[in-house]
Amino acid sequence: MVKGEAMLQDYLPVLMQILIASGFAAVTLAVSVLLGKSGKRNAIKDSAYECGMLPIGDMQPRFSVKFYMVAMLFVLFDIEVVFMFPWAVTFKDLVLHSTTAFWSMAGFAFVLLVAYVYALKKGALKWND
């Protein structure tokens, strides 16, 4: 048997599966277009729908930049907690082998504390201004 024929024979099931899946998708779409109900368009169906409220009147007021600042700080500190969790789970094993793990996480926590104090001093967490 020639090497090219063996390779074609190995990939033939994959090729058949791709063809069958593509054919099924095409036939399903064609049948849904042919047999499906065609919707009648009107002004109510074409209007915007937002959380059950009618789109009449003024739009909602813009959010303050403080809202986005607090949201970003929450995400950042939340991600830092995710980094601390695996360390806390394996803390006992890490400290038995070396104190490097403890001091590296202490430095990490110190950087977080400095960032938190900086955010407090800048007033990023004050909601009412």
In words, what does this structure look like?
The protein has 129 residues and is mainly alpha-helical. The protein folds into two domains: 44 residues; 58 residues. Helix content is 71%, strand content 0%. The longest helix has 33 residues. It starts with a helix and ends in a 7-residue tail after the last helix. 0% of the residues are buried.
Entry keywords:
flat; 129 residues; 2 domains
List the helices and strands and how they pair.
Blueprint: H1 3-35, H2 43-46, H3 65-89, H4 91-97, H5 100-122
Radius of gyration: 30 Å
Helix content: over 70%
The overall average pLDDT, rounded, is 82
- Total count of helical runs of at least 4 residues: 5
Order of helices and strands: HHHHH
Number of domains: 2
Biggest pleated sheet? none
The beta-strand count equals 0
Indicate the overall shape: flat
Question: TL;DR?
Answer:
With 129 residues, the chain is mainly α. The chain has helices spanning 3-35, 43-46, 65-89, 91-97, 100-122.
